[in-house]
């Protein structure tokens, strides 16, 4: 969650950056799943799922004019509020995940 939110804010004004970020997040989370012994099938943290998560997060962005659709998860509001309260803590958490599960 921290990684997704940190990447969301870092690339939110760059379509090309978002595309790169979505692919990075998907690959990292799939690799993490494998390392944790989780069955990583075709749909597990795939690119389309990450794109949908990013879109749903945007509904909680205070600068966005998007409305809540009902497809969002409760954790999204919570993690976005956490980011607005202490963005550096969330960024550190995301960085630690990247270090731990760094892609080859």
Structure report:
- The protein is built from 5 helices and no strands.
- The protein has helices spanning 2-11, 15-35, 47-58, 74-85, 87-100.
Cα-based radius of gyration, to the nearest Å = 14 Å
Mean pLDDT: 93
Note the run of SSEs as H and E: HHHHH
Unreliable residue stretches: none
Helix content: 55-70%
Identify the quaternary structure here.
single chain
Protein traits:
104 residues, 5 helices, globular, mainly alpha
List the topology elements:
Elements: H1 2-11, H2 15-35, H3 47-58, H4 74-85, H5 87-100
Helix pairs in contact: 1-2, 1-5, 2-3, 4-5
Compact description:
The chain is mainly alpha-helical. The chain is built from five helices and no strands.
